[in-house]
Design goal:
GO molecular function, one term: structural constituent of ribosome
CATH architecture of one domain: 2-Layer Sandwich
Protein name: Small ribosomal subunit protein uS9c
Pfam family, one: Ribosomal_S9
Number of strands: 7
Family: Belongs to the universal ribosomal protein uS9 family.
CATH topology of one domain: Ribosomal Protein S5, domain 2
Number of helices: 7
Distance between the termini: 105 Å
Order of helices and strands: HEEHHEEEEHHEHH
Low-confidence stretches: 15-22
Organism: Arabidopsis thaliana
């Protein structure tokens, strides 16, 4: 009994700066003011707005410029032009437009050398019909190609350029035909057969 009175007296001697909430068994202490109190204006939440301009890569800028150039040279698009030819090879299709110029070649709004990865054989395919007639520096070529690979697209462009040159003059048929540039190459990969590894390759024979 004496210990309980001693404990009660010790608790009464302590001074708490607390407020007992209405909830049972919970004590909430008032928050003391900070010594380093900030002014009212700076205490407000400042809204930070950041504007960043991301510059496009140089390749994309070049494509945009070439698009503008092609649209200025071909008003109304490819279909509205007069000297146009369509070439096909494997799964590739190329639409070709010829215009008098200095020999510039643009494929899918990109320079031909960049688009064909600098491959000399593919670049030669593009210019073979013009070189045959001696027009390599007389016409600008604008092309849209899709489907297949770059090799198929380059050969499709060859046929497209040759067909477009026929619309320039009917006299071009004889030299182009002589070089075989007006013939559509119908060769495609032969399909695989059941029971074979490829189109014709059979598995190794085993007697037992």
């Amino acid at each position: 009994m004496a210990s309980i009175t001693n404990l009660a007296s010790s608790l009464s001697s302590l001074s708490f700066s607390s407020q007992v909430s209405q909830r049972p068994n919970t004590i909430s202490f008032p928050r003391a003011n900070s010594v380093f109190a900030l002014p009212a204006e700076s205490a407000r939440r400042a809204s930070l707005s950041i504007t960043a301009t991301v510059s496009a890569p140089p390749e994309e800028e070049e494509i945009v410029e070439l698009k503008k150039y092609v649209k200025s040279r071909l008003p109304g698009g490819f279909a509205a032009q007069k000297i146009i030819g369509t070439g096909r090879r494997k799964c590739a299709i190329a639409r070709v437009v010829l215009q008098e110029g200095t020999g510039k070649v643009i494929i899918n709004y990109r320079d031909a050398k960049e688009y064909l990865q600098g491959n000399p054989l593919w670049l030669q395919y593009v210019k073979v019909p013009l070189v045959t007639l001696g027009y390599e520096n007389s016409y600008d070529i604008f092309m849209k190609a899709h489907g297949g690979g770059l090799s198929g697209q380059a050969q499709a462009i060859t046929l497209g350029v040759a067909r477009a040159l026929l619309k320039v003059s009917a006299d071009h048929r004889s030299p182009l035909k002589k070089e075989g540039l007006l013939t559509r190459d119908a060769r495609v990969v032969e399909r695989k057969k059941a029971g074979l590894k490829k189109a014709r390759k059979a598995p190794q024979f085993s007697k037992r």
